[in-house]
Specification:
alpha/beta, 3 domains, 12 helices, elongated
Length: 442
């Protein structure tokens, strides 16, 4: 256990300084690591059960390591991102990877239906899991678009409140559940993009399930779970002993303690000589998720076509609806796609108003939809505002009303190239179980 003061508690019983009462099946001895070679060797051993999965990039490899640390520390982080493992083809190893994380956390997992249904019932199911002492929520094979407002709220709530199934009484329960999802070509929607780490694996073959491996990661973690826990806490203790340097800029909103115990230690490992693991800052995951968000893509298409049609001129929605009948085909098509309507006669002004209310002030491609504060002819005009972008997720608002160019072009996306396509730790054979480093485990 790690206290709020960043001390590793290993002695059984009550620790007066931290207020932690620790029970364990056997005594723990966490050694002091000051030598960089020992730190790297410990990280290699902690990484071993996930070392053979075919990650599509250095970011996905980093997120897999972050998932191990998230699983290890979830019981004492108030909130933590969920973990999604996705691939283009069945049989790549998604369920096996997620099972390793579940077993490391608690030795077991609870598997839910492939998709959540009614949001109200989902909230009750999640609350029931907490009351029953669930430690891991494992939703397997959630293919396609992943969207759930209940799951969004669940992952950022250290105390979860709701009604039980078949009851009206409000109940609250502490939430330290590790959320695991898998799916083929699964994509995140809405705010889930900033609440889930998306690990992508791709074997680059038609039948990846036919591959052979020298060991089974699930069997290995079952036999070596205590050793894995020891390696993980030894690594975190080494990081905390250096003064817990904050090398990753800023903090991860909604997951501040996770940032301290997962993100920052990985940034610290990446700072070691030569960045031996090829790690990047895990916070890049959230920006990468938004690139694949179809909801964001459809909103961006509307904003660009709206800006091309009207510039910065505020327009009433009924005026726009009248225009769409005879002009601005790009805007019409973008709005039909975004609202899910098949034809213009199925789209009402009320439909458009509701959609605008849901999307207002969200910045995409440097643009956002804004509502004028004063009514005109009984209704509020809408307009598109431009933002000067210092970074894809860090806009600076220009004074309104902004002057837009006649055409707004989308920024060309640069394909991410993995600089470590066939990476293994230096001097490390992934096909042999790791050997103990001398004097590492006492």
């Amino acid at each position: 256990m790690i206290s709020d003061e960043n001390t590793v508690v290993t002695r059984q019983g009550y620790d007066k300084a931290s207020g932690i009462f620790l029970t364990a099946s056997s005594p723990w001895n966490i050694p002091e690591l000051t030598d960089e070679a020992q730190i790297i060797a410990t990280a290699q051993q902690f990484w071993y059960p996930l070392s053979q999965f075919p990650y599509d990039s250095s970011l996905s490899r980093t997120l897999a390591f972050a998932a191990l640390l998230t699983s290890l520390t979830r019981s004492f982080t108030p909130t933590a991102p969920g973990i999604l493992v996705t691939s283009p083809t069945a049989g790549t190893g998604k369920t096996k990877l997620a099972s390793v994380l579940a077993l490391l956390n608690s030795g077991e997992a609870v598997t839910m239906p492939a998709k959540f249904g009614n949001e109200e019932e989902t909230r009750k199911e999640l609350l029931a899991l907490l009351i029953n002492g669930c430690k891991v929520l494992f939703v397997d094979n959630w293919n396609g678009e992943i969207a759930s407002t209940s799951l969004q709220a669940f992952m950022t709530a250290s105390i979860y409140q709701g009604r039980l199934l078949g009851a009206t009484q409000m109940i609250s329960a502490p939430n330290r559940v590790l959320v695991l999802l898998t799916g083929n070509n699964a994509s995140l929607q809405g705010d889930l993009n900033r609440r889930i780490l998306n690990i992508r694996i791709d074997a680059k073959m038609e039948l990846p399930g036919m591959r052979e491996f020298s060991f089974d990661p699930v069997d290995w973690i079952k036999q070596n779970r205590e050793l894995m826990i020891t390696h993980g806490f030894t690594l975190l203790h080494a990081y905390l002993s250096t003064g817990a340097p904050r090398l990753g800029k800023g903090k991860t909103a909604s997951f501040e303690r996770w940032d301290d115990l997962v993100r920052q230690p990985i940034c610290w490992l990446a700072s070691l000589a030569g960045n031996p693991f090829g790690f990047v800052d895990p916070i890049q995951a959230f920006a990468h998720n938004y690139e694949d968000d179809s909801d964001r893509e459809s909103l961006g298409a509307v904003l660009i076509s709206w800006a091309n049609a009207y510039g910065s001129t505020p327009k009433l929605l009924r005026e726009i609806m009248e225009d769409l009948a005879c002009q601005h085909a790009d805007l019409k098509n973008a709005l039909l796609e975004a609202t899910g309507k098949k034809s213009l006669d199925k789209l009402t002004t009320q439909d458009l108003s509701s959609w605008c209310q849901r999307k207002k002030e969200r910045i995409v491609t440097g643009l956002s939809l804004e509502k004028q504060p004063k009514k005109r002819n009984g209704t509020y005009p809408w307009w598109v505002q431009r933002h000067e972008m210092s970074g894809s997720l860090n806009p600076t608002v220009t004074p309104q009303p902004p002057a837009l160019p006649e055409q707004v072009e989308q920024v060309e996306q640069v394909e991410q190239v993995d600089p470590y396509p066939n990476w293994t730790p230096p001097g490390f054979n992934p096909f042999e179980p790791p050997e103990e480093v001398e004097n590492l485990i006492i």
